[in-house]
């Protein structure tokens, strides 16, 4: 498996006022799905399959207070931080995946916090149905133990490669002192990844992942730096600062290597504890519930937008956009928002 741009001035190279396609058409991102306190747990399945972590079903999660809606309307999912365990016992945790399947989209996650700490491996990712990694995996948030830096990772079948570029702010994961660009994840191959420079990845804010024919990009914004277009509900990645990470279509066709994805939240520590720098052993760590007081997701919302192409037809002057009524209304609202911001 597997957020905030390094320098907001980097948006200069990205400072376009509208989304455009290669054939001189235009497009906008319009809302497709919203997941929040009103519908989150009805929209996600609880995973209980084989995994290094002991994930529980929805009945257990609700009964043991591992999943709930807080008094102030936040979606909470967490590991057990109450029960003292005997050596060798599993600590209960939660992993959920969306009922809906997506092929491309703009995914915007607004969180107050993500899990962190020794013995914890927070993750928010999308995954193709079928045998892994044939339909791809996109790790949007992934950390391990008390690591302060998020890692964006792609896992694919053979033939997909990360393109080294100055158009994203993160650092490509190295292997033997060289940038590792092979995204294949089968067998023992790790996939390709980009490490975010920010040390505030898990403290709350907004994560965004754009997946379309132009590639796959991930952003992370501090709360105070969330773009106004996101806040207004009309996101326009074309005017955001450079992303943390980008998988460009020149090296990997995002429509060929990534298909039929569900959205997943989870956390686990796996077998990496011995090399983590955390104290003691993983087994000892798991016994004490106070070690997991920070092992929780607090989510405001997850919104999924779809890309809607719009056709510009020249009819003298001015040019005319031919749109269905709901989309026409959305364009009017976006225009009003932009004018208000000028």
From TrEMBL:
InterPro entries referenced in this protein's UniProt entry, alphabetically: Beta-glucanase-like, ConA-like_dom_sf, Glycosyl_Hydrlase_16
Q: Where does the record locate the signal sequence feature?
A: none
Report the GO molecular function annotations: hydrolase activity, hydrolyzing O-glycosyl compounds
What are the TM regions of this chain, as residue ranges? 320-341
Instruction: Report any Pfam family annotated for this entry.
Output: GH16_XgeA
Do the record's keywords include Glycoprotein?
A: no
UniProtKB keywords? Hydrolase, Membrane, Transmembrane, Transmembrane helix
Query: Domain GH16 spans what residues?
Result: 10-315
Q: Read off the Gene3D superfamilies from this record.
A: 2.60.120.200
GO BP annotations, alphabetical order? glucan catabolic process
Q: Does the keyword Transmembrane apply?
A: yes
The Low complexity compositionally biased stretches are 8-22
What residue spans carry the region label Disordered?
1-22
Name this polypeptide is given: Glycoside hydrolase family 16 protein
